[in-house]
């Protein structure tokens, strides 16, 4: 028997005992009296902003003004009008000039201020990360207390890619000073539709 086979056999014989994954009772995990208030508090503490709106027409007007300004703006929210489908075919070097992107989120998580976005909602998986300013839109009824509840509602196998996005990009790795926008959007505003 070769040394390789000896090592592999030793590994095979020394496997840890199988332990069932614990079942988490979601009724005893964190629950907030006001899910939106908690979502807002956490999101603002990590550098993001949120606004509760009653009508999406507010964003339609903002999108029109953004596009009229001459900036490269991508809209991926069908309710706001013309979705920029051509963004699906743009390369990273073409997308690097995106000033603002409007993207629809699936749900928000109050405990960490994150919003889940499927790849199909991004149009191009680079869009929410390469833009300078990110605008996410979610519905208030799709705010949940915890990630446990989020994963119960999400079908993560639905598409090839998806991400939780929590506020603007930030890092403090470089000499321990906080840098906003180092690896993604410099600002993130989440509009929550009542």
TrEMBL record:
<protein>
    <recommendedName>
        <fullName>LUD domain-containing protein</fullName>
    </recommendedName>
</protein>
<dbReference type="InterPro" id="IPR024185">
    <property type="entry name" value="FTHF_cligase-like_sf"/>
</dbReference>
<dbReference type="Pfam" id="PF02589">
    <property type="entry name" value="LUD_dom"/>
</dbReference>
<dbReference type="InterPro" id="IPR003741">
    <property type="entry name" value="LUD_dom"/>
</dbReference>
<feature type="domain" description="LUD">
    <location>
        <begin position="102"/>
        <end position="192"/>
    </location>
</feature>
<dbReference type="InterPro" id="IPR037171">
    <property type="entry name" value="NagB/RpiA_transferase-like"/>
</dbReference>
């Amino acid at each position: 028997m070769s040394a390789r086979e000896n090592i592999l056999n030793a590994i095979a014989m020394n496997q840890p005992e199988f332990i069932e994954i614990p079942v988490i009772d979601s009724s005893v995990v964190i629950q907030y009296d006001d899910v939106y208030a908690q979502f807002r508090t956490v999101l603002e503490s990590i550098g993001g902003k949120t606004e509760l709106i009653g009508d999406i027409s507010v964003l339609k007007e903002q999108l029109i003004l953004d596009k009229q300004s001459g900036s490269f703006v991508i809209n991926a929210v069908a309710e706001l009008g013309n979705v920029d489908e051509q963004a699906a075919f743009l390369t990273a070097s073409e997308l690097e000039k995106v000033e603002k992107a409007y993207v629809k989120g699936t749900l928000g998580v109050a405990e960490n201020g994150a919003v889940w976005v499927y790849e199909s909602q991004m149009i191009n998986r680079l869009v929410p990360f390469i833009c300078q300013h990110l605008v996410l839109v979610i519905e208030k009824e799709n705010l949940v207390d915890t990630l446990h509840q989020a994963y119960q509602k999400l079908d993560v196998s639905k598409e090839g890619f998806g991400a939780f996005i929590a506020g603007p990009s930030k890092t403090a790795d470089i000499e321990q000073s906080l840098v906003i926008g180092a690896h993604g959007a410099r600002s993130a505003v989440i509009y929550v539709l009542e």
